Amino acid sequence: MTDRFVAFATAVVAVALVAAQIIAPAWAFVHSEPYALALAVAVWVLLTYALRASRGADGNRGRRLAYAAGGAALIALAGIASGLMGPDLQTLVRAPGTVLPLPDVHAAAFFPLVDADGIARGDTSVVIRRRGRAEIAIAPNRRRLLGTALLLAEPGAAAYIEARDESGQRLTITQPTNPAFLSPVLQFGTSVAIDNQQLPADEFAIPALHRRVTAIFIDAKAASAIHASRLGDQNVVLFSVRDDASHNVAHGIGFAPSGGDAEVGGLRLHVTIGTYPRLVVASAPLPIALWFGGAGIVLGLVFAWAWPAAVPHGVVLSASREGRA
Amino acid sequence: MRNALIVVVAIAVVAILAAAYLASGVQPGGGGGPAMLAGAPAQSFPAPRLGGGEDALANYRGRVVLLNLWASWCTPCREEMPDLERLYVAEGARGLVVLGVDQGESAEVAAAFARRHGVTFPVLLDEEQRYGRAYAAVGLPTSIVVDRTGRIVKGIDGALSFGQMHAVVDPLLSPAHAQSRALKQTS
Question: DSSP characters for B83-146?
Fold first, then answer.
């Protein structure tokens, strides 16, 4: 096995590992010590080859491949640096209307206000604000590299609730355990166990009627798993209503699909089910290092194979003299 | 040897750029609740007005506004209401508007509440609770004081006495304050 082959294989693995960090930022391995160790070994192998090849140890083609090895080493180095300088992996669930400082990214994330239609469409973007720079809107399922951080807007289950009393009068909804006290949007940040299944759950209150409501999000797959065929083949929200003293109330359990009403515990709850973005923040390689590294790889490979090997100047000179003779 | 030098220089350049990039960022403030909003532009949303028509906070630009978020079930809101009405009547001529915003209730409920407490100041019906969400209310009542230029001067969680309300709005109503704000805006 030649040095060149070892360097080539190492470069492929290193670039693949760094690419994995960008493609699957929530994968725990790309934020682990073995990942950093693997990249550190790759940097050592690649730089050793680059130095030796630049001195001519791998021939003329090797001299050019030293650029590619250097570029791959730079990408691997960026992968290691992101672990040291970038933010910890976290998923941030915040209510619409919330502004969240992101000190690791030197920015703030704004989660825009949304109505029932916006929840149903699920097209709300998270807006990243940085002082003196243009805003960045990250649409659902889109990602953005920002310094040594990767920001991903991941759609999370959400429900917009409208509450009325039995006579149809609209009622205030509060979320006493949520910093967004007056938000009618549930984001199911906790979970409850039903039939050994962990299901997303949330809570809200209707102070005018002294009611506390637990809402459990059940998608079609979960409904099948808990043998709740009555819920049908659709996403529903299951409501459990108690009074202020946490006592159960009559007819206090019911459910509604998106666009439907649940009549529970003296309340009529209209629910719109959809998604609202959660912000995943993960460390990522510095984009500029990836550009430089990628350019090094491309130039190294192009020069090594697309151009014929350069003939040393002295050889050309002696050949022409021989011709004259 | 020259190639090796290029690789090392490239790495050094990237490291320097990374350090410069990280050092150039902003340091956003933390905290929560309406108090953190001081200095920010006041957000406005159109909403039905009690008594008919549509209204919004933005329609009161040029006047000092005490935006008060309330609901009929909220006991401190009830207690605060006579003082809000008194302030509105006392300081209306100097350019103060008290703008009540009912959070999430029907017009009938809000109207009955306003009648019971003799409210004459304008009241918005915010069924979607947008004002409550935008102004980071952590409870009710919540008061937001907005100056003549539409900037938030103070956000307050909880009920206020007449003296406390007056102490916040009085400096904003003075002609000297209006002039200094106008000068700041033109400069």
Answer: HHHHHHHHHGGGTEEEEEEEES--HHHHHHHHHHTT--S-EEEETT-HHHHHTT-SSSSEEEEE
If you count residue pairs, one on A and one on B, with CB atoms under 8 Å apart, how many are there? Answer: 139
Contact A51 B4 (CB under 8 A): yes
From chain B, the residues in CB contact with A81 under 8 A are: 18
How many helices (H) and strands (E) would you count in chain B? 6, 7
Any A CB within 8 A of B104 CB: yes
Neighbours of A46 (CB within 10 A): 28
The whole-angstrom separation of Cα A175 and Cα A239 is 15
> d(Cα A280, Cα B173) in Å, to the nearest integer?
46
Give the Cα separation of A24 and B133 in Å (integer): 33
Element containing residue B48 per DSSP (H, E): strand B47-48
Q: Do B136 and A130 touch (CB under 8 A)?
A: no
Closest CA in chain A for residue B126: A172
Q: Report yes or no: B128 at the A interface, CB cutoff 8 Å.
A: yes
CB A106 to CB B72 under 8 A?
no
Pick the CATH number of B26-186 from 3.20.20.150, 2.40.10.220, 3.40.30.10, 3.40.50.1820: 3.40.30.10
CA dist A180 and A174 (Å) reads 8
Q: Least CB-CB distance to B105: which of A53, A102, A171?
A: A171
pLDDT tens column, B40-94: 999 999 999 999 999 999 999 999 999 999 999 999 999 999 999 999 999 999 9
Q: What are the chain A neighbours of B69 within 8 Å (beta carbons)?
A: 182
Whole-angstrom distance, CA of residue A190 vs CA of residue A181: 17
For A146-193, the pLDDT digits (tens) are 888 899 999 999 999 999 999 999 999 999 988 889 999 999 999 999
Residues 147-186 of B with CB under 8 A from A: none
Question: Are B104 and A172 in contact (CB < 8 Å)?
Answer: yes
Q: CA nearest B130 in A: which residue?
A: A113
**Cα–chain center distance at A171:** 36
d(CA B75, CA B84): 15
DSSP A137-168: EE-TT-EEEETTEEEEEEEEEEEEEEEEETT-
ipTM of the complex: 0.80
